[in-house]
Design a protein that fits this description.
The protein is α/β, with parallel strands linked by helices. The protein folds into two domains: 15-285, P-loop containing nucleotide triphosphate hydrolases (Rossmann fold), CATH 3.40.50.300; 296-448, P-loop containing nucleotide triphosphate hydrolases (Rossmann fold, 3-Layer(aba) Sandwich), CATH 3.40.50. It contains 15 helices and 16 strands. The strands form three sheets. A seven-stranded parallel sheet has the order 5-6-4-7-8-3-9, sandwiched between helices. The protein has a seven-stranded parallel sheet with strand order 12-13-11-14-15-10-16, with helices on both faces. Helix 2 (98-107) packs parallel to helix 3 (123-137), helix 3 (123-137) packs across helix 4 and helix 6 (207-215) packs parallel to helix 8 (241-249). The protein is globular. Residues 73-101 form the DEAD-box RNA helicase Q domain. A motif (Q motif) lies at residues 73-101.
Amino acid sequence: MENQNTETASEQKPKAKRPRRSNKRFKAENSAPGSEKNTTGSVTKSAPQSKPSKTGNVWSIDDFKVPEVEGKTRFHDLNLPDRVLKSIQEMGFEYCSEIQAETLPMTLQGYDLIGQAQTGTGKTAAFLIAMISDFLDYPLSEKRANNLARGLIIAPTRELALQIADEAIKLTENNHLNVVALVGGMSYEKQKRQLETENVDILVATPGRLLDFARHKKVLLNQVECLVLDEADRMLSMGFIPDVKSIIRMTPHKEKRQTMLFSATFPKDIQALATQWTYFAKEVSVVPKEATNKNIDQVIYTVEAEQKWPVLKQLIEDNGNQRTIIFANRRDETRDLYEKLRKANINCAILSGEVAQDKRVKTLKGFKDGVIQVLVATDVAGRGIHVDNIELVVNYALPEDPEDYVHRIGRTGRGGEMGKSVSFASEDDAFLIPEIEKVVGESIRCEYMVNTSV
């Protein structure tokens, strides 16, 4: 439960926004800091006050020219701080993704948000831009202890937390805000030193490691201004909700913080938690009508168990240097596949829970940079893979949870690009096909493999 009593639905009356940000942007009657009203009464940004950036470069909005396109929202249109726009330009973005265009006009005003979105939709930038813009527009009025967090982002896996932190660092490149990541599997002492010596403006963490630091008062959450819960459904399935509840009890009451919750799916438990943790939240869903992306060509190869490896080897060789992820259900299966691929002189790496965290980070970077062609992963490790231009996803075994099938193949076909997924089904798991088809809402093409040629 929250650290204060939650109102019942019947007692709730619509409210505009919390008093903490009574003069938030977009509110014409109260000009936002650093803004002035024009003759029409709308709010326009005044000339930015000179503040040193991390890079020291002089930059003007005139350096970031993006034409207006019907049906698209430019980042220019959102009245973002110039220092945020400069970082967005340096990252190569011009127009908002659907989730960004839908959520930013509301979150920039201070509203809480419940968002349904798959990975690869741009939701990470959506909540980071809102948080960073808020902190820049409303700087702290007095000095605080290093370990007092302003923004808190909780993610279910180490890989996802580190990728969020990496994107946060890029978006804060031109301002003074500092990003700290607290995740398990990496040096506790190094993270402890960071909390002691660096300002914790934006804290990105996994539940277990964060709770450890918070209980020992190494990081303080009682002044968190903005809380983000990413991939809430995965946190539920991984058993992290008790830890998350304990963490949230350490933060200010929901009326005195901004809360953004994102989830790919919304089972009843997540719906209840979302209502409990947010304050008159706006709800946004950008999930396509189809459970799976239409840009993904899906096929199931029905094979004998002993045929899987030769068929897989042939598939990879026939597809040249395509960037590929192979999903297996168990760690021992990933190890076995990795060894076979390596002995076949295929450029590959393994990503599973038993691999040391520093090596997993290095592996993900190598895969993202194109140094590694094939990645063998388990579902938990694979959940943190957010890499563009993955051409092929292979399910070496069908996942026992049909939802995992959707998450697995969602690693390809991103950003409008075409992708392909190949799933192996043998007599051991073919019975799972109807349930998977029920979840994706369509029949999946099946091909019977009579020999090892594809």
